[in-house]
Amino acid sequence: MKSLKKVFVFFGLCITFEYAASQAINWHDAANSGTGALISSFWNTQHEYFNEASDSISWGGHYWPQAHALDVLVDAHLRVGGGQYIPYFDAWLRGVRIANGNRWANNYIDDMEWIGLAAFRAWKATGNAEFLTVVREVWDGTTDDMDDRNAAFGIKRAWTDAGGGGLFWESRRNRHSKNACANAPAAILATFLYNEFGNPDDLYWAKKIYHWQRETLWNPETGAVYDNINTNTGAVNTRLIFTYNLGTHIGAALELYKITGDVAYLNDAILTADYTINNVVLADDRNVLRGNRGGDGGLFRGIFIRYFTNLILLPDLSPEIRARYVSFLKYNGEMLWRQGTGRPKMLFGQEWNVSPGERTGLTEHLSGCMLMEALARIN
């Protein structure tokens, strides 16, 4: 890696020092920088949500990125302790609900799943029962009617026999697509609920959803996870393979392994992790995870990193596999910190080897935050 430059000013003279890129990075400090920038550059104090970009004052309809912003705050809260982030948790509950029409229900099933997963973690981290109410609202809902816009349509209600099972991506329109992004996160949420409350029905749902995705959208030879199946035609879209779908498939398999002890789940997770780090990488540096532009795609890598890190931290993972995964993760973190961080605002951008300068989107920045938090966890 190339050396980096740091400029100091002494009595009006600019003096430049070069220092080696191999200089150790304090991942705790790096994670603090990312979370600090999340608050200073994106938090909307008036409306109590995160703006869609560092130079915006609107959330831009970004309902589901609010969940991942909350997840990053949970990461930081668990890492540093104390109560410095608690006011943001309480404000988030107010602001995001209001911005979403005073409800948590949404047309997109996966969006509600992200909210449910983040709210569950926030409940566990803070003990605030309002977050558990959010989880119950999105998971169970209050109506069986997809077209009832006046009631909360729960995640589980999106399951039908079309396409052999699975959850629809949307709850009220274009109901012909069942996507990985709407299924694996639901399986993860079901395992969280089962682990906490011991309801066998939640474990039943976790297994049912995971095995449908495994049989329908997962390639058992490569570990690839395909994006969706069209329930009208039965055609599986094998062209679209996204890091967040790979990550949540890992996450669901891992949670089921921890519950059941069935090594087949762990093998599934490893196969998909290997596929990702060997194939979804930059053409000019095959050790760096590839981005997916901005907008929704800006979050895809960060979601993969979250569940990939959980796999790394599994005690049952072989030391050889763990070492390989940690090496990949650290290389990405070093690349992001040394080349892909927009200073002085400490912003993360679309690609982890290119600085975004002084402007970036919320989703891109969140992925970088998740990488820094992941490295702080494993160190």
Mean pLDDT: 91
Number of domains: 1
CATH class: Mainly Alpha
What is the alpha-carbon Rg in Å? 21 Å
Which range best describes the helical content: under 10%, 10-25%, 25-40%, 40-55%, 55-70% or over 70%?
Answer: 40-55%
Q: Helix-strand pattern, N to C?
A: EEHEEHHHHEHHEEHHHHEEH
Main sheet properties? 3 strands, antiparallel
Count of individual helical segments = 12
Between the first and last Cα atoms, what is the distance in angstroms?
22 Å
> Which term fits the overall shape?
globular
Reported by name, the CATH topology is Glycosyltransferase
Q: Assess the beta-strand content as a share of residues.
A: 5-15%
Helix/strand-derived category reads mainly alpha
The CATH architecture designation is: Alpha/alpha barrel
Question: Explain this structure to me?
Answer:
It is a single chain. The protein has a single domain, classed as Glycosyltransferase. The chain is globular. The longest helix is centred in the C-terminal third of the chain and has 21 residues, at 319-339. The two termini are 22 Å apart. It has a three-stranded antiparallel β-sheet with strand order 5-6-7, with no helix packed on it. It has a two-stranded antiparallel ribbon with strand order 1-2. Strands 3-4 form a two-stranded antiparallel sheet. By secondary structure, it is mostly helical. It has helices spanning 27-42, 63-80, 86-99, 109-126, 129-140, 184-197, 200-216, 243-260, 263-279, 300-312, 319-339, 362-378, and strands spanning 4-10, 13-19, 43-44, 49-50, 177-179, 228-230, 236-237, 341-342, 347-348. It contains twelve helices and nine strands. A hairpin with a 4-residue loop joins strand 3 (43-44) and strand 4 (49-50). Residues 1-20 have low confidence and may be disordered. 51% of the residues lie in helices and 8% in strands.
